[in-house]
Amino acid sequence: MEALGLSPLQTLTTSNTKVYKEQCRNLRGRNNHFSSSIPTSQNLKYSNRAPYQRLGIEMRSGVEEDPAKQMKEMAAARKRWDALIREEKVKVLTPKEAGYAIQLSNKTLLDVRPSTEQKKAWVKGSTWIPIFDVDQKFDAGTASKKITNFMMGGWWSGIPTLSYDFQFISNVEKKFPKDTDVIVACQKGLRSLAACEQLYSAGYRNLFWVQGGLEAAEEEDLQREGPQPFKFAGIGGISEFLGWTDQQRAAAAKEGWGYRIVFSARLIGLFLVADGLLIGAQQAARYFQELRSH
């Protein structure tokens, strides 16, 4: 790589951590989308009896902690992540730098996103091992969390209830020796940083974090496979259907009116369907009233 005028992988880092800190602040509003927990770096033990945290938010017996406690524990998680970056235990790469590293040094990328995001777009040649994935359980506790997640905005954003994969570290160890250069990425850069913390505690010392996640990547930065652009992999729900996400608005500004007309037609269609259902309900109510009167 030096012969090509490019820095070696270890020096393809950036010292600017403003984006990272902003992402950590934004995580406080996303905590409800995680239904389980991950081990802290200080108390990491690979057994179900270890004390667990959910990106710094503890869960006990499926009961939600009070917001003040969640904020306190989230602050502790941010301090740990700050230390990982500041002490260069985890190196920082932009998506473009990650693309260079993958192409020119033949390194693979560890994709830790849930299946709902990974199946839409992935980096060519990447290894997919989710740290969180869609919770498939249907017990009473999980059902309650899924209902809460849906009512708290899941219907709009399309973000499902996720649970921590307790086999995450063991699955990574099956694929990568401890001395491997591991480039870790997720959609927005938050879960991948949590994954880096777990991997470092497990003995990995050559870790590289993709700042901003794949959503921050331009199409030319990484070789993409899959049906959608990287920026669209993390959206869903009604907001995606109507084209009201920030990513789709940015695309509409580039594509012009043709792109906007599609989503405008969907919005009109949604109003027509809602209006039709309302009229149908009114007609049905009148019909039943007439039946009762006879």
TrEMBL record:
Tell me which CDD domains the record gives: RHOD
Q: Which Gene3D superfamilies match?
A: Rhodanese-like domain
**Its domain of life?**
Eukaryota
Task: Enumerate the spans annotated as Rhodanese domain.
Answer: 103-226
Q: Which InterPro entries match?
A: Rhodanese-like_dom, Rhodanese-like_dom_sf, STR11-like
Q: Which Pfam families match?
A: Rhodanese (PF00581)
Kindly give the PANTHER family that the UniProt entry links to this protein. RHODANESE-LIKE DOMAIN-CONTAINING PROTEIN 11, CHLOROPLASTIC
Could you tell me what this protein is called?
Rhodanese domain-containing protein
